[in-house]
Amino acid sequence: MYKKGDKVILLDYSGKPLDPAVVAEIEDVYGPDRVRLHLPDNACCLEFVDRFEKIDDAKYKELLHNVREREKTLAVDLQLDIRKFASKHPKKRKDEIFHEFNMDKHYVSVLNAYAGRVQMYGEENINERFLYEYKDALRGLVRTRTFFHDLDEAIPIPSFS
Q1: pLDDT in tens, 86-121
Q2: Are the beta carbons of 51 and 12 closer than 8 angstroms?
Q3: For residues 130 and 117, what is the distance between their CA atoms, to the nearest angstrom?
Q4: Phi and psi (nearest 5°) for 122?
Q5: Among residues 132, 130, 79, which one has the least CA distance to residue 101?
Q6: In sequence order, what are the residues at sequence separation of 6 or more whose Cβ sits closer than 8 angstroms to the Cβ of residue 85?
Q7: Comparing C-alpha atoms, which of 16, 9, 31, 43 is closest to residue 116?
Q8: How far apart are CA 83 and CA 104, in angstroms?
Q9: Each residue of 25-76: pLDDT tens digit?
């Protein structure tokens, strides 16, 4: 019924699409009742075929665009004009500032992906590898925010307890 490359939308327990909608692409088929899904955050998960329904490419692109738009305005994201920020701190190398900024964006993305997964599947169903990446992202975010806080005290250092 399903094949590799099919686009799908995930359903809740009542058989209705999740709100907000979550889309995925089938990465591999493990039998008539189970597949491996590739999610927009580049993570994968095994899922039973009754937990999603097939959608066309146009609908997939529309919903994927909505997912990307939701990710743009992240609550913990550093909303900096990085070029102006780098020009205000000439003692630091620009490539070092850009690297830390990109790492910070990566860590924020992992934290938001984790929050979405917990909301979707429950904390007890998060696999060990993703949990490790989440904990690594927490430590990394504190490190990058400390770096930026040393340059500009208006940037807070998060504390995760």
Answers
A1: 788 877 788 888 899 989 989 988 888 887 777 677
A2: no
A3: 10
A4: 90, 145
A5: 79
A6: 97, 151, 152
A7: 43
A8: 15
A9: 999 999 889 999 998 877 788 888 888 999 999 999 998 887 776 655 444 5
Q: What is the token pair recorded at 2?
A: 């399903």
pLDDT of residue 74: 42
Amino acid at 92: K
DSSP the chain: ---TT-EEEEB-TTSSBPSS--EEEEEEE-SSSEEEEE-TTS-EEEEEGGGEEE--HHHHHHHHHHHHHHHHS-TTS----HHHHHHT-TTS-HHHHHHHHHHHHHHHHHHHHHHHHHHHH-GGG--HHHHHHHHHHHHHHHHHHHHHHHH-TTSPPP---
